[in-house]
């Protein structure tokens, strides 16, 4: 084995020459050899994983490869490190010292590779190769945290952040990798997180949308910590609420709101009416289904935490808000050639979003009292018959094939919408006694 390892290590000079000549393909070939050798040394079936520590030069070479300017090459190496950490025991002081040193240097290398172009103005594209690479790095850092702990990595990133405060891309990269550690930090921590939150909540003007995107994700991953620090929750909610109406930030903002609502429920009840105002404003924004689902889950968490004397009135307010966009779709559909006056695909999307929103609220609502009044409230959705008409009667004359309620070719779409309506009312529209109310509109049978 020594002869094989020494022979492979001779390729280091050739790798460096290829790097200088920017010969990416040749670099990939050498890196593939280095990684496969390292993986064979740590394979438990082949021998003892500790064997790789007999070759510190190989570990050094893998760290050098993690500093390559091409993130595709880094991606070839990065998966090796979580596997190495997982196979090692930190009980051996010698191995532990080497591994911790490698891990610290790896964090610095990954921090550099995840930095954005400081002159760019990136807006998230989930299909972008660089975003895929960043998510891959995030996953690897998250996996290593279970073995290496969160504190050393957080302190390394904090130091990088402090020494590069004037460069927004460097700060963002630190916050991005911190979010991979955040869920591991206990809620009662008062040392590591507080300086970061103080700085972020007093930031007057975030430099870039991508910076704000990362901050919102960090807040979501720190939800458990916020649950133990209500003094900072208000500040975080202000930032989240400001981001919700921004099209490019609504996704992380709605997710962060959902996460905070799980750990800060009692604290968020006082914000219910402000949340309803936001929900009203989001009506015309055209949120994606998953974004509205996050807002719905946050609303449910808050409603379920409310005292019984407040829950019914808040539910009435919520139902009134959710009915408006559905009524608007119905009114548009009843106009001559109504569907052609707008984008039928957009109408279909809006119908799905708001029905899913209503269905999620009713499905997971925990009614504490006034169950009869709640059932009457649900039954008082006066446009149910119109919704039935929308997809069962409207047909091809009003909606093209594949549009909302299209018959014939749109039948599959119609069935999807019918299932959403069933979801809305089937779970909750049961008064005391267990029999259904007058919700039989052709989709729900009676018991």
What does the largest sheet look like?
A: none
- Tell me the structural class: mainly alpha
The total count of helices amounts to 24
Helix proportion: 55-70%
Question: Which series of helices and strands comes N to C?
Answer: HHHHHHHHHHHHHHHHHHHHHHHH
Strand content: under 5%
* Integer-rounded radius of gyration: 27 Å
Distance between the termini: 74 Å
Low-confidence stretches: 391-415, 417-447
If you average the pLDDT, what whole number results?
78
Question: Shape from CA axes?
Answer: elongated
The number of distinct β-strands equals: 0
Folded structure, characterized:
This protein has 447 residues and is mainly α. 68% of the residues lie in helices and 0% in strands. It is built from 24 helices and no strands. It has helices at residues 2-9, 11-20, 24-41, 56-65, 71-78, 80-87, 93-113, 129-148, 151-163, 168-182, 194-201, 209-221, 223-227, 230-243, 250-263, 265-268, 272-282, 289-305, 308-333, 344-364, 371-379, 384-392, 395-398, 411-426. α9 (151-163) packs antiparallel against α10 and α10 runs parallel beside α12 (209-221). It starts with a helix and ends in a 21-residue tail after the last helix. Mean pLDDT is 78; it is low at 391-415 and 417-447.
